[in-house]
Specification:
Largest sheet of chain B: 8 strands, parallel
Number of strands of chain A: 16
Helix content of chain B: 25-40%
Strand order of the largest sheet of chain A: 4-3-7-1-2-6-5
Largest sheet of chain A: 7 strands, antiparallel
Number of domains of chain B: 1
Strand order of the largest sheet of chain B: 3-14-13-10-9-8-7-4
Number of helices of chain B: 8
Shape of chain A: globular
Structural class of chain A: alpha/beta
Bound molecules: flavin-adenine dinucleotide, flavin mononucleotide, FE2/S2 (inorganic) cluster
Oligomer: heterodimer
CATH architecture of chain B: Alpha-Beta Barrel
Structural class of chain B: alpha/beta
CATH superfamily of chain B: Aldolase class I
Shape of chain B: globular
Strand content of chain A: 35-45%
Order of helices and strands of chain B: EEEEEEHEHEHEHEEEHEHEHH
Helix content of chain A: 10-25%
Number of strands of chain B: 14
Strand content of chain B: 15-25%
Chain lengths: 250, 302
């Protein structure tokens, strides 16, 4: 991991809620694995105080793309960034998705949970895996390219939750691995379904972060340990965990 | 010549900047050279491993941070086996922060830590509940602080720092109790107490409700505490609370601090300690002054 200043090369508005921020980062682009994230802030701007954890959406040679959803002050500020503005970033951080080959892989995402799976899909395909992607969101704005789409309000794709699509497809076809990222409640439901179908699933978790490097113990997630549990850090031990290890109700 | 030299009791430090317990770890060596720091302070350790509080543990408020970590740490044994060796390679004095739930437990931890030469001193975290005294924090009762400090002072010749909590009616009486009992220096302030609630749902942002409050927002409170304590004791002060740059550090020196620790701001800028040292150095050079000349020299009050 490094703490460096990088320039914005492009800020692409996807719709009113989402945008894609591309940075030029030759110093670190080669060392990124899918599933990792960065702690980012606007250089010289100390409000909000804490950096914001943002996943790697895509790595293209020396450039790194972040897909961001506006939800509060910090992400709103990022949405106004323009070419040549400077970001202060720490990363790459956290563990990464295990990269199999010649497997049948299912991706499931909800809303901004789409972001970390995008680069993963690229890597899975170049590693000779078959990939099927189910994506869902509240409404049309939350929908991005995938094989099956669901919206809560029915404005795009099928009306309903991704869990419907997940059950349906698992009944029809055998998958070796599932990767999942989205709201906690969705990941919890998906992990129950994966368990029912005896399919190994990895989830990418979120938790409020301060340091992002494993020193403050702020981003705790309850993980099974023998008959009990312990707290691990999402930023260093995660963000990727085997869904069977996570205690969803803690 | 080195204009930043300072003393913290028995320790001679090459510069007055260190890190606040719980906000810094070995991973920070990705960003800075530990040998450039004045000292390093560990996360508080306890006798047994602590898994900490349920999440959410963090919440940012206006220019401040609420935390409810619950002293998560690997315990004394885990610390000695896995953490201590990682700091042993640096020249910078390494200070171990520890805590206990009874005076005997504090005493037992110190006895074990005394075996290790790579430890230069101890920061005693007294902000935790005392199980022998209805769970009331050790640091809120001058008599208990006196008794605890006296016991620990009799067990070590290394630097013994008592870290004070600001969540008391009269911090000066606690500071004096620690001084009288043989503390070599005082650290202050630990986090204030704070809370934050989601106005839409009424839900606490922190799972345990009450949390520790730190960051730039608490700086004036910290300076006030440092000023009052330093005016009333003779032993040196390791000050902290909201420092985010070298100018903040200077305020603390004028208020009476001998050494300044940076906590929350390490999260914002992991190079903040080194930048602060460089800027202080430049400042004192340009003024042809030494740090020690300004300590406690606040003026304009009458
Ligand atoms: C590992 C990880 C990867 C992420 N990847 C992406 C991504 O690729 N794209 C994306 O749009 N979002 C991502 N997020 C979420 C993103 O970090 C939050 O949306 C962002 O921090 C919100 O900040 P804000 O100031 O806009 O909102 P605020 O109004 O401050 O907060 C809204 C909510 O965002 C979350 N949040 C706020 N501050 C933090 C923080 N310091 N750390 C963690 N969560 C916080 C909390 O749940 C909070 O309730 C990721 C989060 C994590 C933990
Ligand atoms: C996440 C976090 C963890 C902390 N853990 C400890 C700790 O283990 N022991 C301790 O004495 N103080 C702990 N503190 C308090 C700091 O050491 C410091 O006293 C306080 O945060 C004020 O300084 P700051 O405003 O620069 O952060 C912690 C603070 C934070 C933010
Ligand atoms: S955010 Fe500090 S340990 Fe994860």
């Amino acid at each position: 991991m490094k703490n460096i200043l990088v320039k914005i090369i492009e800020n692409i508005k996807l719709n009113d809620d989402y945008f894609l921020l591309w940075i030029h980062a030759p110093e670190i682009s080669k060392s990124i694995s899918s599933g990792q994230f960065f702690e980012i802030k606007i250089a010289g701007n100390n409000f909000p105080l804490l950096r914001k954890p943002i996943s790697v959406f895509e790595v293209k040679n020396e450039n790194v793309g972040f897909m961001i959803k506006k939800i509060g002050r910090g992400t709103e500020n990022f949405s106004h960034l323009k070419k040549n503005d400077v970001l202060d970033i720490i990363g790459p951080l956290g563990n990464s998705f295990e990269l199999p080959s010649q497997k049948e892989v299912l991706l499931i995402s909800g809303g901004i949970g789409y972001a970390p799976l995008h680069n993963l899909k690229k890597e899975l395909l170049s590693n000779n895996n078959n990939v099927t992607w189910i994506h869902g969101g509240r409404s049309t704005n939350d929908i991005f390219s995938s094989d099956f789409t669901f919206t809560d309000d029915g404005s795009s794709g099928q009306k309903g939750f991704v869990t419907i699509g997940m059950e349906e497809i698992l009944l029809k076809k055998k998958f070796d691995l599932i990767y999942c990222c989205g709201p906690k409640i969705m990941m919890k439901k998906c992990s129950e379904i994966a368990k029912k179908f005896h399919t190994k699933m990895f989830v990418s978790l979120e938790e409020y972060m301060a340091c992002g490097i494993g020193v403050c113990h702020g981003c705790a997630v309850a993980i099974k340990k023998n008959d009990s549990f312990t707290y691990k850090t999402v930023c260093k031990d995660g963000p990727i965990f085997n869904s069977n290890e996570v205690i969803w109700n803690e | 010549m080195n204009r930043l030299k300072t003393k913290l009791g028995k320790l001679e430090l090459k510069n007055p900047i260190t890190v606040a317990s719980g906000t810094f770890g070995v991973e920070n060596n990705n960003f800075i050279d530990f040998n450039s720091l004045g000292a390093i302070v560990s996360k508080t350790i306890t006798k047994n491993e602590k898994i900490g509080n349920p999440p959410p543990r963090l919440y940012e408020t206006s220019n401040g941070l609420l935390n409810s970590i619950g002293l998560q740490n690997p315990g004394l044994k885990g610390f000695i086996e896995n953490v201590l060796p990682k700091y042993a390679t640096y020249e910078t004095p390494f200070i171990v922060s520890f805590s206990g739930s009874t005076i005997d437990e504090f005493s037992e931890i110190l006895l074990e830590l005394e075996k290790y030469d790579s430890i230069s001193g101890y920061e005693v975290n007294v902000s935790c509940p005392n199980v022998e005294n209805e769970g009331i924090a050790f640091g809120t009762d001058p008599k208990i602080v006196y008794k605890l400090t006296k016991q620990l002072a009799s067990q070590t010749d290394k630097e013994l720092i008592i870290k004070l909590t600001p969540n008391v009616t009269d911090i000066v009486s606690i500071a004096k109790a620690a001084e009288d009992a043989g503390a070599n220096s005082l650290a202050l302030i630990n986090t204030l107490l704070g809370m934050s609630i989601d106005w839409k749902s009424g839900k606490s942002h922190i799972r345990r409700g009450i949390a520790g409050y730190s960051g730039p927002a608490i700086k004036p409170v910290a300076i006030q505490n440092v000023y009052r304590v330093s005016s009333n004791v003779k032993i040196p002060i390791l000050a902290m609370g909201g420092v985010s740059n070298w100018k903040d550090a200077l305020e603390f020196f004028y208020a009476g601090a001998n050494v300044v620790a940076i906590g929350t701001y390490n999260f914002v800028n992991p190079k903040i300690t080194i930048e602060t040292i460089d800027n202080l150095n430049r400042h004192f050079l340009s003024r042809n002054q030494n740090l020690t000349e300004i300590i406690g020299k606040i003026n304009g009050i009458n």
